[in-house]
Specification:
The complex is a heterodimer of chains A (about 260) and B (about 240). Chain A is about 40% helix and about 15% strand. Chain A has ten helices and eight strands. Chain A has an eight-stranded parallel beta sheet, with helices on both faces. In chain A, strand 7, helix 8 and strand 8 form a beta-alpha-beta unit. Chain B has a single domain, classed as Metal-dependent hydrolases (TIM Barrel, Alpha-Beta Barrel). Chain B is built from ten helices and eight strands. In chain B, strands 4-5-6-7-8 form a five-stranded parallel beta sheet. The chains are: A alpha/beta (about 260), B alpha/beta (about 240). Chains A and B meet through helix 1 and helix 9 of A and helix 8 and helix 9 of B. Chain A: Pfam families: Amidohydro_2 (PF04909). Chain A: GO terms for molecular function: carboxy-lyase activity; hydrolase activity.
C-alpha cells in the first residue's frame, strides 16, 4: 500500500495569528487517526525569526517522533555560515531537504544569495521545497521554474502550487514544461476541482500532497485529495508515491517499519 | 447523521467554470460528497446587481434559497421595503455591504435589521467581504438580530471568539476555520450550537470540511449540531 506523505507541514506558534494546536503531539496523533503516515515539517521559529534555533527544534521533533515527522531545514540566505550549518544537519536522520521562505526572508528565490544553498541541496541529492506565491516578487512559480532550469538535477517543489487560484493553471503549465519542477498543493484556496486540473495539466507524477499543518488543519488537506475525482493510481502518486520517489532512503515511515 | 451545507453558491461564478452552474450540477456535487441539503445563494444575486436582477428560488426540496437583499433608499436596492422580505419568510437572507456598497449600520439598513430581527429571520454576512468589525457593529446596534458569519477564515480566531462570547446571536460557519484544531477550539469555548457546517463552495473548498466533519474530535452530539442542527435552530428562530 502506498504511503501517505504530507510534504508540507510546520509546528510551533506564529505571531501573526492564533493557532489552536501548534504542537507536534497533536499533529502526530491526528495524522495517525486519519491515515497520514508522516509529515515533513519546518519549525515556525525557523521560518519566522531564528533559523538556527528553529532547525534544531525541528530536528528534536523528528527525534521525538521518528518515522512520523521528517524535517525540511529552513535555508536562510542572510546567514553567513548557513551552508556549513546545513551541511552537518542534512546528515541527521529524518531530514528530507531544504525549505525556502523567500517572502519571509525578503529575498527573491532567484537572488544569488540562495545559490550556494541550492548547490548544497543538489550536491546532497535532496529536494528543495519553497514557499510559492503567484504574483510575489519573491516566490512566483515562474521564478521557481527558473531555479529549476538553473539546477536541473535538483527537484524543486512549488509550495502551495502558487497559493492563488488565478495562478494554478500557469503553475501547472510551468511544471509540465520543466521536468524537475513539482507542485505541492497545500493551501486554503485549493479546491478538488483545481487539484484535478493540476493533475490533468502537470501530470499526477508532478503533484504532491501537503497540508500546511499546523497553520492549516491536516484533515482539510487530506480530505481534498481523498474526495477529488482522481484515478486510484493518480491519487496514490499524489498522496505519497511521488514523495517516496523524491525522498528515497531519507523517507522513514514508522507505520511501515518491521517490528 | 444529517449533513447540511449552509453556504453554497448556485450559478456561474467569475473566474472559474463550476459544476453547480445549475440545480442538477449542484445536486450532483452534494451527492458526491454525501451532503443531504444546502442553503444556496443565487450567484447573480451576489455578482450581479440585486437592484435589477431577481432570481426564482432554487426549486428543489434539498436546496434552501438564501436571497441576497440590498437595503437602500427606494429604487436603489431590493426589495423596496423590509416588509417584503418578512412576508416571504426566507430561512435566511444574505447581504453584501462592501460588494454592493451600502451602509450596513446606516439608518435605512438598521430599520431593515430591526424588522428582520423581530421576524426571526437571520442574516448571513461574509466576513471575507465585510470583516468581523462590521459584523460586531451591526449586532451591537441590533442585539436581537441573529447573524451567521460566513467564511470567517483562520487568521482572526481571537476576534471571532470574542464576537461569539459577547453576542449570543452570532453564529460562525466552519468551512474556512482552517487552522489546526480551530473547530474544536471554538466548539469548546462557545458551544457547538454556535457553529454551522458550511463551505462556500464552489469558490471555497468543500471536500476538506466534509472530510473533517467525519473526523472532528468532539462528542457525537456536538458534531451533529455542527453538521445540521445549529443551522436548523438558527433558521427556525430558536435562540442559542
Amino acid at each position: 500500500m502506498s504511503p501517505v506523505v504530507d510534504a508540507h507541514g510546520h509546528v510551533g506558534g506564529w505571531a501573526d495569528f492564533f493557532v489552536p494546536e501548534p504542537d507536534s503531539a497533536w499533529l502526530v496523533d491526528v495524522n495517525a487517526e486519519i491515515g497520514i503516515d508522516v509529515v515533513g515539517i519546518s519549525h515556525l521559529v525557523a521560518v519566522g525569526r531564528d533559523t538556527v534555533a528553529g532547525n534544531e527544534l525541528a530536528l528534536a521533533e523528528a527525534g521525538r517522533h521518528p518515522g512520523r515527522v521528517g524535517v525540511w531545514l529552513v535555508a536562510d540566505p542572510h546567514l553567513p555560515d548557513a551552508v556549513a550549518l546545513l551541511r552537518d544537519q542534512l546528515d541527521h536522520p529524518g531530514v528530507w531537504g531544504l525549505k525556502l521562505h523567500p517572502d519571509t526572508h525578503l529575498c527573491a528565490a532567484t537572488d544569488p544569495r540562495y545559490r550556494p544553498l541550492l548547490e548544497l541541496a543538489a550536491a546532497a541529492g535532496v529536494p528543495v521545497l519553497s514557499h510559492g506565491q503567484t504574483g510575489s516578487p519573491y516566490s512566483d512559480p515562474a521564478d521557481l521554474a527558473e531555479l529549476a532550469r538553473r539546477h536541473p538535477t535538483l527537484p524543486i517543489l512549488v509550495g502551495h502550487a502558487g497559493l492563488w487560484q488565478e495562478g494554478f493553471d500557469r503553475a501547472a503549465r510551468l511544471a509540465a514544461a520543466q521536468p524537475n519542477l513539482y507542485l505541492e498543493i497545500c493551501g486554503s484556496r485549493l479546491t478538488t476541482r483545481w487539484l484535478e486540473r493540476l493533475v490533468a495539466v502537470a501530470g499526477a507524477d508532478r503533484v504532491l500532497f501537503g497540508t500546511d499543518a499546523c497553520f492549516l488543519d491536516p484533515r482539510l488537506g487530506l480530505g481534498k485529495v481523498r474526495l477529488a475525482q482522481l484515478s486510484d493510481a493518480d491519487r496514490a502518486l499524489v498522496l505519497g508515491g511521488n514523495a517516496a520517489r523524491l525522498l528515497g532512503r531519507r523517507l522513514i515511515i514508522a507505520s511501515q517499519e518491521t517490528p | 447523521m444529517r449533513i447540511f451545507d449552509a453556504h453554497r453558491l448556485l450559478g456561474s461564478v467569475p473566474g472559474d467554470h463550476v459544476p453547480s452552474v445549475d440545480v442538477a450540477g449542484m445536486l450532483a456535487e452534494l451527492d458526491r460528497l454525501g451532503i443531504d441539503g444546502a442553503a444556496v445563494t443565487p450567484s447573480h444575486g451576489l455578482y450581479g446587481d440585486p437592484a435589477h436582477e431577481h432570481a426564482a428560488g432554487a426549486g428543489h426540496e434539498r436546496l434552501t434559497t438564501v436571497p441576497v437583499i440590498l437595503p437602500a433608499v427606494p429604487g436603489a436596492g431590493w426589495p423596496d421595503e423590509p416588509g417584503v422580505v418578512v412576508e416571504s419568510a426566507p430561512a435566511m437572507v444574505r447581504a453584501c455591504p462592501v460588494r454592493h456598497r451600502f451602509a450596513l449600520t446606516g439608518p435605512v439598513a438598521l430599520r431593515w435589521w430591526h424588522e428582520l430581527a423581530a421576524a426571526g429571520i437571520p442574516l448571513a454576512l461574509d466576513a471575507h467581504e465585510t470583516g468581523l468589525d462590521r459584523v460586531g457593529s451591526v449586532v451591537a446596534a441590533v442585539p436581537r438580530l441573529r447573524v451567521l458569519v460566513l467564511s470567517p477564515g483562520y487568521r482572526c480566531l481571537r476576534e471571532l471568539a470574542e464576537l461569539l462570547d459577547v453576542h449570543p446571536g452570532v453564529y460562525a460557519e466552519t468551512g474556512t476555520l482552517a487552522a489546526a484544531g480551530a473547530v474544536e477550539w471554538l466548539a469548546r469555548r462557545c458551544g457547538a450550537h454556535r457553529l454551522v457546517f458550511g463551505t462556500g463552495a464552489p469558490v471555497w473548498d468543500d471536500a476538506g470540511p466534509r472530510f473533517q466533519l467525519e473526523h472532528l474530535r468532539l462528542p457525537d452530539a456536538d458534531v451533529e449540531l455542527i453538521a445540521a442542527g445549529s443551522f436548523a435552530a438558527l433558521s427556525r428562530g430558536e435562540s442559542s
